[in-house]
Amino acid sequence: MSTFQPVRGMRDLLPDEAERLTYVISKARETALTYGYKEVITPVVEPLELLAAKAGEEIRQRMFIFEDMGGRKVALRPEFTASIARLVTTVLRTEPKPLRIFGVGSVYRYDEPQKGRYREFWQADFEVIGSNKPEADAEVILLANSLLSRVGLKGYAIKLGHIGVLRNLLTQEGVDEKTQNAILQRMDKKEYDAAFALVDSSKCQTLLRGLLNLKGENPFETVQNLCTYLKDYPKALEAAQYLSSVLKLVTESGCSIETVDPAFARGLEYYTGVIFELYVPELNMALGGGGRYDKLIEVFGGEPTPATGMAAGIDRIVIATQAQQTKLQKQAFKRVAVFPIKEELKVEALKIAQTLRNAETPVEFEIMGRKMAKALEDADKRKVDYVVIVGEREIKEGKVIVKDLVKRTQTEVEIKDLKKTFAT
Q: What is the pLDDT of residue 331?
């Protein structure tokens, strides 16, 4: 027996697991299409300089980095946004705005493996490029809401914030960008004491701690209290007012926002505006999130271009559907097996199998050379719905025997009518 196992943090997805993952991906694609997004496929390997530019210190430390045979420093992508920004600054730079772009695939981070956290995992990424309006932020949040609804999740919650509140407050208090990044990294992990300890000013520490106490049960009241709190910080107040506009657009479009958190931060350094995350009560982890990043494309050499987007954690959404015992709403196919009674009938049987496959009926053909009793027993175990038995007498009459393994009945059916028999 082989002793080979997957590399730590990587996984084999067995058929049932792969089915659930690809189901969520299919729902992500459906959602993207309904919002007018076009799919792009970007490389798994990108230049290190691109991926590290604004990823955030924690992600930079967890990237899979190596040198290629040309001596170039490259890395496995830890997320999609940098790759999308690269596209926007190069081949898509002259495309009319807004650009609505969608991508799905595996991403890589050298995290400590645990439930919902792997070193290879899957994301669906949605980006809107070219709009600085609240409507663009609202669209991405509504899209995220639609995706969770489409996969059948219940009771999920959306947390909303604005990174500009924190950054502008810190900037006005004289805190440099590097220190801001370190503070936000720790706030993202809820390490508030460690975050606030990085600020020298006791006034600034008090201001930041005050933001923690503003979070209330009513999102609109929280935003109103936040605006009052920031009356002496014009740029931070402007961010809070923008957040209020997004909140109004989203909620009046029928999407509930559970929480507005004035002290909410996310780890990626490129965020400049509204940010959000998605949760279900059964799991203590975000299913996805995103936000506005108005300066990233400029960092990569493009024209100043506003942008916003979100990434959905496919693996975590799968875990959430399992926790809620969500049934996959798949297209109902009848599973059919075709068995020839004799060796001499296998060509005729294969023709019948191909005819059904061409009519979009999934068919398994007997390729093990088993006796009929064994073949039927195997089909039953694998939950095949029908078996088409190709016999010598029936073929001469242009017929086959159709055995219903669910109802335990069998009938003779003319071959010309077989497609109609299994039509869904």
A: 66
> What is the dotted CATH code of the domain comprising 336-422?
3.40.50.800
Q: For 139-143, which contacts have Cβ atoms below 8 Å and span 24 or more sequence positions?
A: 139/35, 140/290, 140/308, 140/309, 140/310, 141/246, 141/250, 141/255, 141/276, 141/310, 142/250, 142/253, 142/255, 143/31, 143/32, 143/35, 143/310
Q: Please give the Cα distance from 183 to 193 (Å, whole number).
A: 10
| Unique residue bearing structure tokens 């919650």 | 157
Cα 135 to its chain centre, rounded Å, is 22
Whose structure tokens read 């960008």?
Answer: 177
CATH superfamily of 15-323: Bira Bifunctional Protein; Domain 2 (3.30.930.10)
Q: What is the pLDDT of residues 11-41, one digit of tens each?
A: 999 999 999 999 999 999 999 999 999 999 9
User: Could you give the residue ranges of the DSSP H alpha helices within 219-313?
Assistant: 219-229, 234-252, 296-299
pTM for the whole thing? 0.89
- Mapped onto helix, strand or coil, the DSSP state of residue 405 is coil
What one-character DSSP code corresponds to residue 114? B
